[in-house]
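Lab notebook, design round three. We kept the backbone fixed and only want residue identities now. Task for the bench partner: fill in a sequence for the structure below.
Input structure tokens:
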């Protein structure tokens, strides 16, 4: 019976993934999909402790038409959950955000700050963390709509614990992808249109040691090679099925924050 359940689950996953090829608002991409012309922010451009950094194109080597990139805790229209146990079961309440952004998309100056900090678990430290350190949400806003966005997220100790969500300029939801592995993982997505105005990273489940982001990549159509059309894209939320089929493993490691 157990084998039958697994088989049925895999068939369901395949059907869901196949159906998502034509209907996906966003599709998962890897770092390899980003060309050399794509924007890159490593968070080593500014000093440790910088709060809510603002990156003009000249700060990261962007050319004409490149966006200004700004950071904060979440977008206007969102808030920290008043009932995290229900809204984000198992997640830290400080990183459980609810509500839909209002349009036009804008960072909420009253949200918890982000800051550049060191991370002993990330080989390319420094990173950008939410507040409190490694347990706060992170929102990214682009002055020019993008085709794709991605970054190194982690350090993950639980599969499907953290999601990157893309929003259009009017605040509408485009889609979400979540971590499929443990440790440091690249979380990237492209839209079916060149309309990503901002992305948001927060906890969607239990993450024992928190998270941060590093090496954020972004670009327009010419900066990103679309995924192979023969490769079935992973639908947002499919990690729920994966974690339901397989067991979760936990890793332990220590963080060092500046």
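Proposed sequence:
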């Amino acid at each position: 019976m157990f084998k039958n359940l697994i088989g049925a689950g895999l068939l369901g996953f395949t059907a869901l993934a196949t159906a998502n090829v034509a209907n996906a608002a966003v599709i998962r991409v890897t770092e390899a999909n980003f060309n050399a012309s794509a924007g890159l922010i490593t968070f080593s451009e500014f000093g440790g402790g910088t709060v809510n950094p603002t990156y003009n194109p000249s700060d990261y080597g962007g050319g004409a038409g490149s966006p200004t990139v700004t950071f904060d805790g979440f977008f206007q229209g969102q808030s920290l959950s008043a009932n995290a146990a229900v809204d984000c079961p198992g997640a830290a309440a400080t990183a459980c955000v609810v509500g839909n952004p209002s349009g036009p998309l804008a960072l909420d100056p009253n949200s918890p700050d982000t800051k550049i900090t060191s991370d002993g678990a990330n080989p390319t430290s420094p990173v950008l963390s939410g507040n409190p350190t490694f347990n706060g949400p992170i929102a990214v806003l682009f002055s020019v709509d993008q085709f794709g966005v991605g970054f190194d997220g982690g350090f993950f100790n639980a599969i499907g614990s953290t999601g990157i969500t893309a929003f259009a300029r009017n605040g509408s939801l485009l889609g979400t992808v979540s971590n499929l592995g443990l440790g440091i993982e690249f979380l990237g997505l492209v839209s079916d249109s060149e309309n990503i105005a901002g992305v948001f990273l927060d906890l969607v489940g239990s993450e024992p040691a928190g998270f941060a982001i590093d090496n954020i990549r972004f670009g327009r159509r010419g900066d990103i090679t679309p995924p192979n059309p023969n490769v079935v894209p992973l639908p947002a939320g499919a990690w729920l099925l994966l974690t339901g089929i397989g067991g979760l493993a936990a890793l332990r490691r220590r963080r060092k924050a500046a």
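Keep this in mind before ordering anything: The longest helix spans residues 2-23.
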